[in-house]
Structure prediction request, 1230 residues.
Amino acid sequence: MLTFIGRRLSAMVFVLISISIMVFLIFFATPGVDPAARIAGRGADQQTLMQVRHSFELDRPLPMRYISMMKHLFVSQDLTSYVNRGAKVIPQLSQAIPATFSLVIGAAIIWLFAGIFFGILAASSKKKWIDPTIGFLGIVGISLPVYWLGEVVNLITQSKLHNSVFKWVPPLGYVGLSVDPWQWFLHLLFPWLTLAVLYAGIYVRVLRNEIMVVMSEDYIKTERAKGASEKRILYKHATRMSLITIVSLFGLDFGALVGGYALLTEVVFGIQGVGKLTFDSLQNFDLPVIMATVMYASFFVVFMNALVDVVYAVLDPRVRRV
Amino acid sequence: MSLKDSSEAVFSESPGKIALRNLRKDKRSIIALSILGFIVGISFSAPLYAHFVAHTNPFQSTLDATISIHGEQKAVLEPSTTGLGLGVTPIGPTWNLGKYFLGADGQGRDVMARLLYGGRSTLLIGTTAGLLCIFLSLLIGIIAGYRRGWVDAVLSRLLDIIWAFPVYLLAISLSVVLLTSGLTIGFIHVGPGSFALPIFIIGIVYIPYVARPIRAQVLALREREFVRAAVGTGAKSSTIILREILPNIMPSVLVFIPIIVSLSMLTESALSFLSIGVQPPAASWGTIINEGLGLLYTRPIVGIAPGLMIVLTAAALNLYGDAVRDALDPKTRARGD
Amino acid sequence: MRRKSVIFNSLIGAAALLTSVLVGTSTSQAVADGPLAAYDAAHAGGTLTLVAQAAAGTLDPKVNYTGQYWQIFQATYDGLLSFSYGTGKTTFKVVPDLAEALPALSNGGKTLTFKLRKGIKFSDGKPVTVNDVKASFERIFKVSSPTAGSFYNGIVGATACLAKPATCKLDKGVVVDAAKNTVVINLVAADEAINSKLAVPHAVINPASAPSKDAGTTIIPTTGAYMIKSYNPNKSLILVRNPNFKEWSHDAQPQAYPDEIDYKFGVTPTAQVTAVENNQANWAYDPIPSDRLNEIGTKYAAQVHVNPLTAMWYLPFNVNLAPFNNLKARQAVSYAIDRAAMVKIFGGSQLAAPVCSFLPPNFPGHVDYCGYTKGATPAKPAKAWGAPDLALAKKLVKESGTAGQAVGIVVSDDDVNKQMGVYLQSVLNSIGYKATVKPISGNIQFTYIQNTKNKVQISVTQWYQDYPAASDFLDVLLGCASFTPNSDSSINMAGYCNKALDAKMAKAKALGVTDAVAANKMWGAIDQEVMADAPVAVAFTPKQLDFISSQTKNYIFSYQYKMFVSQLQVK
Prediction:
């Protein structure tokens, strides 16, 4: 077991290093990204330009530059931005993390509740219209482009109906939980709902189908034959079995979202989280910030992947041989 | 359908044929296919619409155009005449198919015509990218699962890298390269404005999503008696893969197709929304949404209409996906049917 | 001052009832040239909230080269000289700031003598001394200020400092006398624009102890009405009153009204408008999104201020690359572009005016003329631009033999610039080219189009004045010295180098030292001569639209730095 975890960990490090090298190479292969002239200012003298280039170590060979950047990022942790000179990258990232966590955790609570409730309802309801209706809503949920939904929500709550129904909706942005819990809640309410729609759609569909599959298994049929009530079968066996799938799915989704996959939601609602930071740094071609956010994001994604693998390995020893 | 039907069928028909028959009877598949057929039909008749109905070139800026509505001559881009007279607003929907059915955009172009042309790009990119993704995933998944050992380890790490890689960085960088100088790989030259970039990027983004489950299935199949037996007889790997493995993973691959095509379309629109997909003056639903955002407060229809088209198409694809899945594996069928 | 502001606002209100043409004239001419009104302590206090999409980078006044922060620096830092507070054209005037008077010139204009004011302290409590002045000039080079090589290379000893900034010493260039409290600046040659160059933020006085590299986000003590409390480029810039500030010149650095200024970042332009409408912010930095213009122009007309900018939107042609290495091809495009259409994209005729002259209206040396309009030629220009001449353009393209060639238009990928690109593509296609638009990130487009390596044929870009002098447009943008092949910093994007014209510009600059009026006349002639060659096509001159909240009063516009932030009243 330990060797399996060890192998997984070293694979993780390998993946992270590969990603950082690729990001670095792609960045410098892009034409026009040399930050020296942008930092030096418009119309800068050629000598000034060279001095700026030197001060950012941009006149050194690529491998040296890469090693130096990694050293500043991980060892001395004083890597600074290419755009906002002097702005350290790591504090920027750590300041953005609470906003992303607030967004993702809140949305996750909504989608888990909605997903589990409607998923079970769809699989168990006696009424004929409920399952297709929920199925239809689930399909709409997974078919909505999140950025478009966000913009439409903004259009309605910030403008069209802002003077009547949605007078209470605060302007876009993020307010820290410790600053003002009520404002924190109000600012995040619509971002939560918007982000949750997609995942609620996915979870409803997955849960419903899992329950249906379990319900048709032989051992359930045996239970039923023994005279157990439908309710008891549903809650004791079917739901419990299918929740395992939900938990592992949740692990992957949560890792990806916390790592910055909520980028579009954050951009549309102006929430200054990791996704927005990534987006802004990409727009600015600010490599140090790009590198930090990418490392952070890939860590979460890869770590959650590995964690799910390890959990599976604990549950099912055959996986370890693979 | 009743159990009796299918149990009788087992003796005379292959599982594929049964599935096909199930699918044909499924109301959802009929609804989904008619919606998709309608959308594909109108999108691919875009040039006909632009030329014969709207009499407009949706790629030509007409900032000083005028049209007559109820005998009244109106500028397509009207400068504001109230208050301080700030801003210029494109004409709104006329609901007249002949001219500016959905109004004009910021360049005075017919939004309806662009919506149809945009559908063509989005459908084309979504479908091609989706199929490319499925193909590559099959390749990777089968090789990794069949060969096992170090080949599997390398490919699995590759999947990890793709999964965790920042897609937007790749997209932005590649689009700068493409736009400015074009990309030459070997003898293939990809020029600016080509759809190859979005297709390529979207095609690889979802590979891990599909390849992982395929690999897992192949790994499991590899342990099954009939595969072991085939290996034991000394058959060639390619023969085993084609004869024994591929048919057994085909059902799940088929289920993936509509889902991935729908995901690819959503991603295409997201990339275009971040202005790194289809390049102007060409249109896709994502670029029209992007352009529509600049008009959200005055002409919201420009941004909302393509969004609704995306939802409709994606929903139809997902509905069809559900029907395909249930046809192949009836356990999850809705009990109402 | 308050009285004036009320008049200004009511003028806008009244103008709203008039036709749209009249509005523009009344808003831009409503304020007469004059000094700043006396300070009204009754309106002091409160917090002014400004909102912007993004911060503008380093906070070092010697390095930052953005209009966004120059506006803020005016209320925080001081140089020996500065641009005057006031109304109308007064704001283009250079006045003594930390110096007691404008410099006494001697040695044929090569020696400038200043006397430093006494009793002024930095925000950290230390007095401002002549040694700080000398260190500040050396600091321009030590921090690699963007203008070190263009504005301050005329100071004696600057050449050595440019080559080796770390050890920069200006012992001969900036001679100080602590006993007499004087500063003598020695120039290699007389410079007509030296006062302006000494008045911009890159020449402000910092403590001698300020870091000898770009300070970035660390805070340098100030002399002005405000000091910087905190700066986080992803969040906010907070300014509070400088406790050591006492007004010494009402023109150069007047007492401020708000107690605190909170500049918040990360707010989208459309959210900025909403915030100002709902009184959650006092002012929006970014251009108002085009779909909100009509709304603020009607519902919030009294809170809108439109003023002319000395700036231009223009299309540099690459004169060293086909097809625009051909004069006729360049002229064809100059005739073909519908400047009114481009104005429409920018937001309508109230927010911009079509022009073809290189020097913008209201700028020294500007002459009203247009050589590229229907019925005019560069030799026989019309008074103003009227309409495009597509027929002539097509003819010129044919004659040039460049018809059918591929042309790439490199534009920024923001909404307005991209629309300009798409429009241009349409025009170029209609006169016989095969055009494509290449929208690239706004953050790299400006440097990308400068580098000859990138082989950009035509692009869309803007230029805003640094200081009011014709040389800041003509010499900077089209002089041979501004063209460096294969460099990201080659502001002469056209790659245009005309030796004869360069000599004329040098002459005009020399003349400017002694006779500004005659020099400006000469610049006007140079303008027409350059445009006959059409290295660029000027499209229009934009106007500044400021949208302030209903609770914000005392808006005053400066030609040099736009709105005076410190003079806004929130109480």
